[in-house]
Amino acid sequence: GAVVSPTSLTTYLAAPHALLSVSRVTGDIEWLEEDVSASALQDILAKHGQAGAVDLVELKTGEFLMPGFVDTHAHAPQVPNVGSGQQYELLDWLTNVTFPMEARFSDVEFAKKAYPSVVQRIVDCGTTTCCYYSTYHLESTKVLADIVHSRGQRAFVGKCNMDSNSVPYYVEPSVEVSMANTRTIIAYIRALPAPSPREPLVHPILTPRFAMGCTPQLLAALGALAHADPALAIQTHMDENAGEIAATRRLFPPASLPPPPAPPPPGCAGRGTYAGVYDAYGLLRANTVLAHCVHLEEPEVAIMAARRVGVAHCPTSNFNLRSGCARVGMLLDRGIKVGLGTDVSGGFSPSMLRAVQDASICSKVIAMQAPPADGDTGFAGQQLRVATLLYLATRGGAEVCNLEGRIGSLAPGKAFDALVVSVRDGAGNPGVWGADLDDALGMGTPGREGARWKTEEDELRGHLERFLFCGDDRNIRRVYVQGRMIGGKEFRG
Ligand code: GUN
Ligand code: FE
Asked: Which intervals hold domain Amidohydrolase-related (predicted)?
């Protein structure tokens, strides 16, 4: 059937008649033949030594296979809050809407009720890898990790660290308690049995909520833990909102900061900035995921590039909480890894499709307000095209998670983390844009007189664009992680 997969920030494979082999044992992709006619099928299987040894799955017209989405930033305990408190900016939203909901997860029974449907909802939206924040509660975070693990989703699960500047009923009591629970959850997640012969799917991630929510002592302790454990990923928020940035600068004046454990490369000190705070505590490195990064100053971009951090671009949330438009094109031009994040419930949709759509709109806003200068050939100031949006939602996210060798595209040696998408009306999302409407209007079959598409490849590219901009979870028929079906409309279990 048809296969779509990103090949670079500006190109993607669209192969209407591909054949892809997945190992039943490992769940990895063994090989991919990009152009296979029905008559050559048996010959190709024989060439790979697999004649008679395969379960053949044939996709229908209007269906295609693509890599699963990587949501680089989502708050599992906020999903029950989607669509409430939409009038607030960040700090009031945290106080009035978010902290009250998260506080309820002190009750592990509440977590056991909420998290199964949260995770299944996110999986059914096509998210095969998710960077989750839970709350600061140890037992509820274990519940989230258990559910993600038993569901078979690939994920990072982090217990928040937050011991200051919160509401009195939702704040960690001390650095010691925060760190002890952090060490416990990291060990707990690492001890979950790996479901495949290859590798664990669920990873711990250090999660200082944001600088202003942590005392300097807590940030120092987290930095020491990170230093002792270089493989441990880190996630946090940065430069999201003007009020947050002002508070952070007030709380962490440069004179109060320790020297960074690794000296910054010349020309990118970053001191006196938000990024400089994290860098001082050794929290910026190649496996750090920084959400938002809306209001960046040049020294911050320099230190981010030097430390090789990844950015979780969360446009739905950045519009919704009126935070601003992140300059994704500029970040890409600087070689900084960028993925997309839903940031539920700052973002009001758990679907990465919404993040894709808003990433497009955000880039168009920037293109209107700050178009590229004459002679600029990069991404800055340009609207993001479909190839780039696809890349950010899949492969860019994989890079941000440092999993680019395993996921993010459909290629031999990578895990089969994939979606079967259908753009037929029969998928249950009729009328608006369906391929069946094209047929009814005589615009369907490519190459025919009056057809919308010249070739089958054009048609597949058109179907991808429509799915990204007009699709929803009804179009996602199957969701696979490591070769195992774990969600989608056809999933029963
Ligand atoms: N900054 C600190 N906590 C949060 C959160 O939960 N959501 C968002 N969007 N920003 C934050
Ligand atoms: Fe967030």
From this structure: 64-485
